[in-house]
Amino acid sequence: MSEYQPVLLPAIPDLHKIDVYEQHGGYQQIRRALAMTQEDIIGIVKDSGLRGRGGAAFPTGLKWSFMPKNGEKPSYLCVNGDESEPGSFKDRQIFEFNPHLMIEGILIAGYALRIKAAYIYIRGEYEKWVQMVEKALADAYEKGYVGEKMKDTFGTGFSCEIYVHRGAGAYICGEESSLMNSIEGLRPYPRVKPPFPAQVGLWGCPTTINNVETIANVPVILEKGAEWYKSIGAEKHPGPILYGISGHVNKPGVYDLPTGMLLTELIYDVAGGVPGNKKIKMVIPGGSSMPPLRGDQLEGVRMDAESLKEVGSAIGTAGIMVMDEDTDLTRILTRITHFYKVESCGQCTPCREGTGWMLKVLNRMLEGEGTPKDLDLLHSVAKNIEGNTVCALGDAAAWPVKFTIERFRNELEAELQR
Amino acid sequence: MFTEEELKHVDEIKSHYPTNLSAVMGVLHMYQDKYGYISDEGITFIAKLLDVPEEKVLGVVTFYEMYHQHKTGKYKLQVCTNVSCMLRGSDMVLKTIKDKIGIGIGEMTADGLFSVHEAECLGSCGTAPMMSVNKDYHENLTPEKINELIDALKAQG
Ligand SMILES: Cc1cc2nc3c(=O)[nH]c(=O)nc-3n(C[C@H](O)[C@H](O)[C@H](O)COP(=O)(O)O)c2cc1C
Ligand code: SF4
Ligand code: FES
Fold first, then answer.
1. Nearest C-alpha in B relative to A252
2. 8 A C-beta contact, residue A283 and residue A208
3. Contacts of residue B135 in chain A, CB cutoff 8 Å?
4. What CATH number is associated with residue B93?
5. Number of domains chain B contains
């Protein structure tokens, strides 16, 4: 660990400026990529073991291999920077401190996937960061790294366009099919799958959707090789990852470190421990939709997809939210449920109605009028949402409620007595 | 409603997509930046400008949190109350604002200068508590910072 140097957010002053990025080897990997075959690049990404950083940890090389090789329709790439899952604040760091790494990653992915254009979808509230990315993009166009001029710069027949699409404050637009509807200018209701985006995506054309951080890993993999990449972090979920640590810690922030680190090491060493040396009551390891862990359950738990699955949670966006022993869990759960209720698109009855019912019961509990029976009621509503909806927001709303009740029943019952 | 230069920008947005419908969001942002909110008139104007049905534009406006169909304060204080901010003092932020300018969530000062809104997680959990004021983020908030900020905005008018 001690010899690890940040890879996605290296400590190089002004790296967001294109000249500085070039001085550090920038835009050399797209040049190398263009001398390889598309299949070779997809092969390297597969071998590296890179898995998506947007929530589901899906193997990126495998996802890329679903794209048609000689389709009649144009293909697209959507780069997901909607970043609205509570507890997630990492893609913003890439926009601000290393946007050219993302742009170069888009170009490499673009060539490997034979795309015509890429859309970087950035949440609307990140207006400042939209401007930063647009500046970086304008510089890359100017230098001939993007667009038609690529053909001259690199001397091959490949070119692609990159555009920024700014959202307007809807969490659901981070869901990949909703994101595509948003770009198309439709009301962004998630689509029923199948068909999957690699067959029928943006404007009915083959499309791949990847998270910003996922894409930023691509130039690094090409530069250092699949073997190097695989040697970092957890065997089945390798690489550098951006941990976002927030809540009751002394040094909250985004940390570029290997996957598979101990949760306790991240909380106590990296993030400086809990203020006042208090005990931890709850940790949500991957953004607010992921099942919460008990404070007395953290020993030995590592931050990678497999390890977290073993303890009944998931890595999500690696946004770690830490809550000390004095935290009011009823209030936290109510706030989380409020979020999913507000953000439900309303398309499926279990999600639309279920989140509303859960919120009503939780509010009753907060007002001191709840009974232990309410916990059973909440649990059953959550179970009725889970798995019965068009998109995964339903599960995202159900899991915090279901697992908090299962894992913190005593604490919640004690809070009912107040 | 748009100047020559703004119309050029609209053309630039349109050129990013194979259909005009995709340009609706970008043009709505432009319109709201200029007029503060999206009026019925604005919806008609944008529909004509992009040659798309009015219902489509309305459908987009009503879906997204950031598009407003009514006037808000000149300075929109969006206070994040989601989990990480709650754990680090969003209650303090709301109380400090209330003590300072007398309004809470969903309210606007009589002079129209400030409105306060409850925001969902704004992607600043590591620098909580936070709020945004129009397009600017204000992070690691303390009562002193909030009071200073509001004084500065009042002075700007
Ligand atoms: C409700 C919901 C919100 C999501 N929000 C995001 C998001 O903000 N950013 C993101 O990258 N993925 C988000 N996802 C996951 C995407 O649907 C998709 O799996 C991901 O962008 C794929 O990229 P990856 O394979 O590189 O991780 C969300 C999923 C759901 C169900
Ligand atoms: S699960 Fe919820 S958010 Fe997802 S499509 Fe259904 S109603 Fe919409
Ligand atoms: S919880 Fe407030 S910015 Fe994320």
1. B126
2. no
3. 127-128
4. 3.40.30.10
5. 2
Task: Note the Cα A43 to chain centre separation in Å.
Answer: 23
CA atoms within 13 A on the CB side of A299: 1
Residue from A192, A211, A344 to probe ligand 1 pocket by mutation (most atoms less than 8 Å from CB) = A211
pLDDT in tens, A24-62: 999 999 999 999 999 999 999 999 999 999 999 999 999
Contacts A83 to B, Cβ<8 Å = 123
What Å distances lie between residue B86 and A91, A159, A364, B79, CA to CA?
A: 22, 46, 20, 10
HSE at residue B109, side-chain half, CA atoms within 13 A, is: 18
Please tell me if residue B128 touches chain A, with a CB cutoff of 8 Å.
yes
Say whether A124 and B120 touch across the interface (CB within 8 A): no
- Taking the centre of ligand 3 as the mean of its atom positions, its distance from the CA of residue B82, in whole angstroms, is 5
DSSP secondary structure letter of residue A159:
-
Q: Is B135 on the interface with A (CB under 8 A)?
A: yes
Residue A189 distance to chain B (closest CA, Å): 10
Task: Tell me the pLDDT tens digit for each residue of A63-95.
Answer: 999 999 987 899 999 999 999 999 999 999 999
Q: In angstroms, what separates the C-alpha of A26 from chain B's closest C-alpha? A: 26
ipTM: 0.98
- What is the C-alpha separation between A181 and A202, in angstroms, rounded? 8
Pairing type for strands A161-166 and A117-122 reads parallel
Contact A203 B87 (CB under 8 A): no
* Structural domain span for residue B24: 4-63
CB-based contacts of A185, cutoff 8 Å, min separation 6: B17, B19, B20, B21, B22, B23, B24, B25, B52, B56, B60
Nearest to A222 by CA among A111, A126, A76, A307: A111
- In terms of Cα–Cα distance, which of B80, B64, B63, B74 is closest to B33? B74
Coil, strand, or helix at residue A98?
coil
Same domain? B55 vs B24 = yes
Domain boundary among B35, B63, B91: B63
The pTM of the full predicted model, rounded to 2 decimals, is: 0.98
Which atom from ligand 3 is nearest to the alpha carbon of B121? 4
Cα A228 to Cα A221: distance, rounded to the nearest angstrom? 8
Q: Which position has the token pair 């050399």?
A: A28
